[in-house]
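Fill in residues.
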């Protein structure tokens, strides 16, 4: 510290002014490079990403709303294997559909065959059955028929099962 004080005392007033100005310029440049410039560039980067972040937040809000909606729905009813066929036939009748054949499979699933049914009606029935009875299609084979909009369908359906 003595060496610096001695160096400073040996300088002429004009040299002291030049050295002090140089030190001030270096200090200002360091302050800008270490504090101000990173903050300014960070703000600019965040402002550029803000629209994308807002869009992601809107998607998240929509998904949260969907989750709340799904949670508020009634729970899917599970049926015993004995009740499955009756529940399915009731569901078909409500949709105005008639299965040509309903065959129980070894694993408890049901094999349904539909002949020349309107695809839109059949698809709406399947979606409703999945929602209301907890059914899941494990295999679907739809073949167009000569009647526009109608199909022949082979469907393996797994109904929700009661535990125990």
């Amino acid at each position: 510290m003595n060496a610096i004080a001695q160096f400073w005392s040996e300088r002429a007033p004009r040299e002291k002014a030049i050295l002090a100005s140089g030190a001030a310029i270096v200090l200002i440049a360091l302050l800008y490079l270490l504090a101000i410039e990173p903050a300014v560039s960070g703000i600019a980067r965040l402002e550029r990403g803000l629209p994308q972040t807002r869009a992601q937040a809107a998607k998240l809000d929509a998904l949260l709303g969907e989750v709340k909606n799904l949670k508020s729905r009634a729970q899917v009813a599970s049926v015993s294997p004995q009740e499955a066929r009756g529940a399915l036939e009731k569901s078909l009748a409500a949709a105005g559909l008639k299965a040509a054949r309903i065959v129980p499979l070894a694993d408890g699933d049901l094999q349904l065959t539909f002949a020349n049914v309107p695809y839109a009606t059949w698809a709406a029935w399947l979606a409703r059955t999945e929602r209301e009875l907890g059914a899941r299609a494990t295999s679907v084979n739809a073949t167009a028929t000569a009647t526009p909009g109608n199909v022949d369908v082979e469907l393996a359906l797994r109904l929700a099962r009661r535990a125990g």
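DSSP finds four helices and four strands in the chain.
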